[in-house]
Amino acid sequence: MDIVLQQLVNGLTLGSVYGLIAIGYTMVYGIIGMINFAHGDVYMVSSYITAIAIALLTFFGLESFPVIILGTLIFTIAVTSVYGWVIERVAYRPLRNSSRLSILISAIGMSLILQNYVQIAQGARQQGVPSLLSGAVRFDIGDGFVQITYMKLFILFAAFLGMGVLTYIIQKTKLGRMCRATQQDRKMASILGIDTDKIISLVFVIGAAMAALAGVLITLDYGAFDFYVGFIIGIKAFTAAVLGGIGSLPGAMLGGIILGLSEALFAGLISSDYKDVFSFSLLVVILIFRPSGLLGKPEVEKV
Amino acid sequence: MSKAVVKKTLVSLAVAGAITAAQADIVVGVAGPHTGAYAAFGEQLWRGAAKAAEDINAQGGINGEMIKLVKADDACEPKQAVSIANRLVDSDEAVAVVGHFCSSSSIPASVIYDEAGVLMVTPASTNPALTDRGLPGVFRVCGRDDQQGDVAASYIVGELGAKRVAVIHDKDTYGKGLADAMKSTLNSYGVKEVLYEGLTRGEKDFNALVTKIRSVDADVVYFGGLHSEAGPLVRQMREQGLTAKFISGDGIVSEEFVSVAGSPEYVDGVLMTFGADPTSYPAGKAVVKSFRDTGVEPEGYVMYSYTAMQVVAKALAANDLDPVAASDWLHSGVKVDTAMGTKSFDDKGDLLVSDYVMYEWDAKGKYNMLNK
């Protein structure tokens, strides 16, 4: 019993982070129909920025957790958003009207550029940040116990807050309405006076900001990262986006959580050797029965 | 058209000739993960070999010829290892190789070296399969996983008296080989492992696995793998309140293990098997001192790499620079004086005497030899 509960907590924290990164894939796909393969590497860049932010803040003598975490979040989200904006501007906008294939290749190129740039600039070694928030809550259940670190609780809180704020922006604000309009029909939206280029840039910035949030949370939790961490987690988040229905915002979050939970439960209850096999099999099965993902809308063939 | 082709061929032949003629030096490849997640080990290999080559060249080289080192980066990936092995053999024309680091790279690369008659001495690859296949030109100056596993298993059973042992590996040649070797010795002592699982290299979240280890109530966790996964694993164990003893092999011998784990408190009490302190040999005192004088701590595999380079140089010197004769010479059981004492090899290419002992990490993030 305690073991299953602990696995649920493990899966939920992992899944909420997958969800945050999946948002970047799904929003970009929704608005310009491309898969941004450099997104995992944007997340990787944010890990490094997190470490830099922590180093800067402690250098200026700020030691208390709330100050550091807030400072790190603001700094990392701001800098990573700039990365997101620049990537769109440099690698994707010039190719907006070319074939889908060329923009895809451009994304893969961007991914390699980011990896190699970080490897050269920061070195290929494993990097680590010290743990900022230690301690855990412990619930005794029968003979066993469930132990959740404060950091994990903070991850859950911050991830769901981030998703909540984003959902509010997209659903309730004028900005969000412009995003949705651009997603539905870019030409019509621009005829109605929406600066679609600006909205597309904004979507990249939002995606990068969410990846940065995930980057800060994961980096603080696991403490270790290198220039290659974006790859596996990027693939997982992309899977989550497809699972939930690519293009759908709640789908990305749902897909992330389902993927995280299924990985944790399968690894915990059956075998960790085959957890990835299980997750991807799950993806295949879901796509057989729901080709557009759990919450995705089937694409209507325009005649 | 055909004239142009002929012309091109002639030009390229001439260029190739010029390159060969210019290579009067003895080219030795230093192959290992110079980039990637395991670059710290590649750096250790390079430092040791570079220092050895510098010292040997300062004393007149090998029979008067200078050693020229070539860096070859396999990133600890089997495919890349094969392609750089081909490059070393074909375009660099190396006669010997110090490396590789990861067993999964050394094994496929050794086939290429064998075909080309290149002498290969690895300072670090401990998987038994490397020398078990009977390739004549393959040697190692480190021990073998089965020897390492024996030491760990007898420590777990004898010193710790543990009954519930969880065995975790990273599904890679080195990690799984080490874990399997430990497991079979453990079983021969009559202790059956309570859990045997693999994790995925490159991931950082092992919480689900940690919870599973907790559910089987293990009091010892044996991990076959490298520090980049061992760090997060041990940290997440402690964070979930799992106090089981963590034991691993020589894959975590790097100061980076501490930074990857987050802080020294997490590595406190972690045990590992590793060759007896490579800096403690009387024969190597001068070398260790000159490393420290230049501000470099000869940690991990630095001295092994230095020794591997020495073995290469001595074997080539005794056999007129012929790598094939050199390997026969080494197999004959000759004693080679190195910075890590006198080494001799059996007919497989393994050391006649292994030197594994148990080390423990302390709360300051340093490792110390136990019972010595």
UniProtKB/TrEMBL annotation, chain A:
InterPro entries recorded:
ABC_transp_permease, BCAA_transport_permease
**Which branch of life, at top level?**
Bacteria
On whether RNA-binding is a keyword of this UniProt record, the answer is no
Cellular compartments per GO CC: plasma membrane
Q: Which Pfam families match?
A: BPD_transp_2
**What are the recorded GO MF terms, alphabetically?**
L-isoleucine transmembrane transporter activity; L-leucine transmembrane transporter activity; L-phenylalanine transmembrane transporter activity; L-valine transmembrane transporter activity
Subcellular localization is given as: Cell inner membrane
Is Cell cycle one of the keywords UniProt gives this record? no
Mention one GO biological process in which this protein takes part, according to its record.
D-alanine transmembrane transport
Leader sequence segment:
none
Give coiled-coil spans as residue ranges: none
Membrane topology according to the record: Multi-pass membrane protein
Please provide the record's keywords in A-Z order. Answer: Amino-acid transport, Cell inner membrane, Cell membrane, Membrane, Transmembrane, Transmembrane helix, Transport
Q: Membrane-spanning residues where?
A: 12-35, 42-62, 68-87, 99-118, 150-170, 199-219, 253-271, 277-296
Query: What PANTHER family does UniProt report for this protein, alphabetically?
Result: BRANCHED-CHAIN AMINO ACID TRANSPORT SYSTEM PERMEASE PROTEIN LIVH, HIGH-AFFINITY BRANCHED-CHAIN AMINO ACID TRANSPORT SYSTEM PERMEASE PROTEIN LIVH
What family does the entry list? Belongs to the binding-protein-dependent transport system permease family. LivHM subfamily.
Q: What is this protein called?
A: Branched-chain amino acid ABC transporter permease LivH
TrEMBL record, chain B:
Leucine-binding protein domain location, by residue? 26-366
Q: Enumerate the SUPFAM superfamilies for this protein.
A: Periplasmic binding protein-like I
Q: Which GO terms describe its biological process?
A: amino acid transport
Superkingdom of source: Bacteria
Q: Where is the signal peptide?
A: 1-24
Keyword Nucleotide-binding recorded:
no
Glycoprotein found in the keyword field: no
Identify the InterPro entries for this entry. Leu-bd, Leu_Ile_Val-bd, Peripla_BP_I
Keywords for this protein = Amino-acid transport, Signal, Transport
Family per UniProt? Answer: Belongs to the leucine-binding protein family.
Recorded protein name is Branched-chain amino acid ABC transporter substrate-binding protein
Which organism is this entry from?
Answer: Maribrevibacterium harenarium
